[in-house]
C-alpha cells in the first residue's frame, strides 16, 4: 500500500518549474572508452542499463523531482523501486559552499557541491550534505520503462535556483562494492565490468567534445558541473566546418573537377588516354 501511494505521488504530480533539463549522448555507457558489461544473464541485454540519456530537475507542489532516463531499465532481482542495476550520484552545487572532494571514492570536482543524492535500489537512496551528514531519506521509483524518479520535500534543502549546477555520475549497483558501486577489473567476469579505468562510473552527464567530455573526466577523476544551458553551448562547430568542407569536396568532384592535392601524379596516370587534359 505504501509503495502504491509513492507511485501515485511520483507519477501524478505536475511539475510547476523546471530548473535543469539536459540530454546526454546515447550509447556512451562505456566509461572512459572501453568498458564491457558483466557476463551474467541478469545484465542482459548487456548494454544500455547504465546509459543515461536525459536528466531533469523540477518542482511540483511541495516536492523537488529529479528524473533520470536510461536506454534500458530492468529489475531481475525484484527490487521494490522497480529497478536494480542503476546507481547514480547527483551532486548539487549551489555556489561556493560545501566541498570539492567526495571522500568515499576520492573523486574531485571543478567547484564545491553542497548536496549529494544517492539514487539506488533496496532503500539505499538518501540526501546528504557535503560533510556526509544525512539530511533525509528520499523516495525513488521507476515511473515508466525508461525513467527513474527521485523526490523529496522542498524544506530539506535551500530553495532551488535556476543557476544551480549538477554533476550526475552513473554506476552499477553492488551491495558488496565500494560505496555500493560494482567493481571494474581488467579481466571482467560474470559480475564485474571489464576495463582498466580507476573509477566505477559507466556514464557521466557531460558534453560530447572537448576537455570536459566523459572519457576525460572518468580517466582523471576530476568531474565537471553543468548548468541548464551548458550542453546547448557545446555544439561541435569545428566538426560542422569539417563536415561542410567534406561535402563541398564531394560536390565539386562529382561535378567533374579533380584534385591532386599538389602532388605529382604517377606516370601511369599520364599514359591514360585524355589524362593530360583531364588532370591538367
Describe this structure in words.
With 280 residues, the protein is of the alpha+beta class. Helix content is 18%, strand content 30%. It is built from 6 helices and 16 strands. It has helices spanning 2-12, 214-220, 230-233, 237-254, 267-270, 275-279, and strands at residues 17-23, 52-60, 63-70, 86-93, 99-102, 107-113, 115-119, 126-129, 134-137, 139-142, 147-153, 165-172, 184-185, 193-194, 203-204, 222-223. The strands form 4 sheets. The protein has a 6-stranded antiparallel β-sheet, with helices on one face. β2 and β3 (63-70) form a beta hairpin. It is globular and about 55 Å long. Mean pLDDT is 85; it is low at 1-14, 233-240 and 261-280.
Quick description:
With 280 residues, the chain is an alpha+beta fold.
Topology of helices and strands:
Elements: H1 2-12, E1 17-23, E2 52-60, E3 63-70, E4 86-93, E5 99-102, E6 107-113, E7 115-119, E8 126-129, E9 134-137, E10 139-142, E11 147-153, E12 165-172, E13 184-185, E14 193-194, E15 203-204, H2 214-220, E16 222-223, H3 230-233, H4 237-254, H5 267-270, H6 275-279
Parallel strand pairs: 6-16, 13-14
Antiparallel strand pairs: 1-2, 2-3, 3-11, 4-7, 4-12, 5-6, 7-8, 8-9, 10-11, 12-15
Give the biggest sheet. Answer: 6 strands, antiparallel
Shape, please? globular
The total count of strands amounts to 16
Low-pLDDT regions: 1-14, 233-240, 261-280
Amino-to-carboxy terminus distance = 83 Å
What proportion of the residues form beta strands (DSSP E)?
25-35%
The helical percent reads 10-25%
Elements, N to C (H/E): HEEEEEEEEEEEEEEEHEHHHH
Question: How would you state the average pLDDT, rounded?
Answer: 85
Strand line-up of the largest beta sheet: 9-8-7-4-12-15
Give me the Rg, rounded: 24 Å
Structural class: alpha+beta
As an assembly, this protein is: single chain
Specify the number of helices: 6
Amino acid at each position: 500500500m505504501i509503495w502504491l501511494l509513492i507511485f501515485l505521488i511520483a507519477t501524478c504530480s505536475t511539475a510547476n518549474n523546471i530548473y535543469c533539463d539536459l540530454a546526454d549522448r546515447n550509447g556512451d555507457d562505456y566509461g572512459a572508452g572501453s568498458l564491457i558489461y558483466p557476463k551474467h544473464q541478469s545484465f542482459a541485454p548487456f548494454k544500455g542499463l547504465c546509459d543515461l540519456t536525459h536528466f531533469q530537475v523540477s518542482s511540483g507542489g511541495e516536492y523537488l523531482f529529479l528524473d533520470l532516463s536510461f536506454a534500458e531499465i530492468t529489475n531481475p532481482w525484484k527490487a521494490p523501486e522497480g529497478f536494480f542495476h542503476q546507481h547514480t550520484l547527483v551532486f548539487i552545487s549551489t555556489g561556493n559552499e560545501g566541498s570539492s572532494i567526495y571522500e568515499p571514492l576520492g573523486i574531485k570536482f571543478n567547484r564545491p557541491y553542497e548536496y549529494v543524492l544517492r539514487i539506488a535500489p533496496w532503500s539505499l537512496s538518501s540526501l546528504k550534505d557535503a560533510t556526509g551528514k544525512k539530511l533525509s531519506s528520499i523516495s525513488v521509483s521507476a515511473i515508466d520503462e525508461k525513467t527513474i524518479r527521485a523526490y523529496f520535500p522542498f524544506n530539506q534543502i535551500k530553495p532551488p535556483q535556476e543557476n544551480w549546477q549538477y554533476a550526475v555520475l552513473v554506476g552499477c549497483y553492488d551491495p558488496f562494492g565500494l560505496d555500493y558501486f560494482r567493481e571494474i577489473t581488467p579481466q571482467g567476469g560474470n559480475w564485474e565490468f571489464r576495463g582498466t579505468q580507476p573509477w566505477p562510473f559507466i556514464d557521466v552527464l557531460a558534453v560530447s567534445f572537448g576537455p570536459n567530455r566523459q572519457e576525460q573526466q572518468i580517466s582523471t577523476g576530476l568531474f565537471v558541473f553543468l548548468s541548464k544551458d551548458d550542453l546547448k553551448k557545446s555544439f561541435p562547430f569545428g566538426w560542422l566546418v569539417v563536415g561542410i568542407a567534406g561535402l563541398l569536396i564531394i560536390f565539386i568532384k562529382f561535378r567533374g573537377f579533380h584534385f591532386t592535392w599538389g602532388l605529382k601524379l604517377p606516370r601511369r596516370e599520364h599514359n591514360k588516354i585524355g589524362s593530360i587534359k583531364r588532370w591538367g
